[in-house]
Amino acid sequence: MEIFFSDIPEEGLPISGKLNPAWFQLPEDDPIRISGDVEYDLTLYAFDETVVFSGHVRGPVELQCVTCLEYFPWEADFPAWQSELDIEQRQVSFDPREGLRDEFLLEMPTTPHCDEMIDDRVCPKVDLLAKFEHDETPLEAGPEPAGDDVWGALDQLEKD
Ligand SMILES: [Zn+2]
After folding, report:
1. Which residue range is the domain that position 59 belongs to?
2. If you measure from the C-alpha of residue 78 to the centroid of ligand 1, how many angstroms do you get, rounded to a whole number?
3. Cβ contact 32:61 at 8 Å
4. What is the pLDDT of residues 140-152, one digit of tens each?
5. Is 52 inside a domain boundary?
6. What's the whole-number average pLDDT of the chain?
7. How far is the CA of 33 from the centre of ligand 1 (A)?
8. Which of 3, 41, 87, 153 has a beta carbon 3.0–4.6 Å from 16's, enabling a disulfide?
9. 146: CA distance to ligand 1 center in Å?
10. Cα(59) to centroid of ligand 1, in Å?
11. Which of 120, 109, 124, 5 is nearest to 61 (CA)?
């Protein structure tokens, strides 16, 4: 899709469409996964050195929780989308999908926590830590704590 700056009228140029997941070219281990088409419904405004994108952008993604490292689904929805594209001096046209791709990724939360972003979700890692901290009964019943046995075994190894 190529748009010439000269084609953008003063009142703005409406554009809409979809970016498919492949367009984002994210590596498989990226903390962001685009799980479906990202839809955009925008008006473009041309100024001397920038084009302003204004409208609605949304799409389904999967984000990697920084605590449990699990991917969880999230609907990225930006009903009041605003972004800008800088224009090079001799540039006459541009592909709005390129700027949109980069800006969309920049809008993703940088430290997502699954339990903060999904209602009623308990982060498995947080849950595990909470259980561990509140559990006062020893992990192993016995005359000696398990830890001593480990050090004893180590001592034995060093003597050999
Ligand atoms: Zn989590």
Report:
1. 3-118
2. 23
3. yes
4. 555 555 555 666 5
5. yes
6. 87
7. 16
8. 41
9. 30
10. 21
11. 109
